[in-house]
Design goal:
The structure is a single chain. The longest helix is centred in the last third of the chain and has 23 residues, at about 160-180. The protein has nine helices and two strands. It has helices at about 5-15, 20-35, 45-55, 55-70, 90-100, 110-130, 140-155, 160-180, 185-194, and strands spanning about 75, 80-85. About 15% of the residues are buried. Helix 2 packs across helix 4 (about 55-70) and helix 7 runs antiparallel to helix 8 (about 160-180). The protein is mainly alpha-helical and about 190 residues long. A hairpin with a 5-residue loop joins strand 1 (about 75) and strand 2 (about 80-85). It has a two-stranded antiparallel ribbon.
Length: about 190
């Protein structure tokens, strides 16, 4: 079985049917990160959103909880309350990264931290590749795998600076290809549609 067929088969095995709240949160999240809903803007009222999206109040509230946990909105209670948009903040990513590092006792330096950062970037690239496997040639998929292995070999050899330079170059190359192929799609689009 070719690499492309393996990727397609793996993607087919992990079918996840998202809940209504997840789909709604994904829709609003994409609007926020694209700047379609500016920072500080109030989202429409619950009743307006329920009507607009054709969802239940409980699904809407669960979507709000998801977005609030991601710190993309704040919820105020009371007469002048409602949901207001917040700009995505690096502290959210830092908190999740710390949660991944802590169980392994990883300090904020060294190869284990770099491996986790590379793994995170690799997951973003993997999601994009899976989403567009049908359009990709097996050679490109194999090339992506070789790039990841090359970066990891440098990290394992203690060559953090060389690994960072190598990976930066690969990521710039991927970014150019993605921009050419997918136009206005964002990383969030890849993660939510993959």
């Amino acid at each position: 079985m070719s690499t492309a067929e393996n990727v397609r088969a793996g993607a087919m095995e992990r079918v996840h049917v998202p809940k209504t709240a997840e789909v709604l949160a994904s829709t609003i999240r994409a609007q926020i990160v694209r700047g379609e809903i500016p920072e500080g803007a109030a989202l429409p009222s619950e009743s307006e959103l329920v009507s607009q999206f054709g969802v239940s109040r409980s699904s809407l509230r669960e979507a709000f909880r998801i977005l609030e946990s991601e710190q993309l909105i704040t919820i105020r209670r009371g007469a002048h309350g409602g949901a207001r948009v917040k700009r995505p903040d690096v502290t959210v990513a830092a908190r999740y990264l710390a949660l991944l590092l802590q169980p392994d006792g990883v300090l904020l330096a060294g190869n284990r931290t770099l491996r986790l950062l590379y793994g995170t970037l690799t997951e973003l690239v993997r999601q994009e590749i899976i989403a567009y496997t049908i359009r990709e040639t097996p050679g490109r998929i194999q090339s992506a795998g070789e790039s990841v292995r090359g970066a990891m070999r440098l990290v394992a050899a203690g060559e953090g600076d060389k690994a960072a330079d190598f990976w930066r170059g690969r990521m710039l190359s991927v970014a150019e290809r993605v921009a050419e192929t997918h136009g206005g799609r964002t990383i969030v689009d890849a993660l939510t549609s993959g």
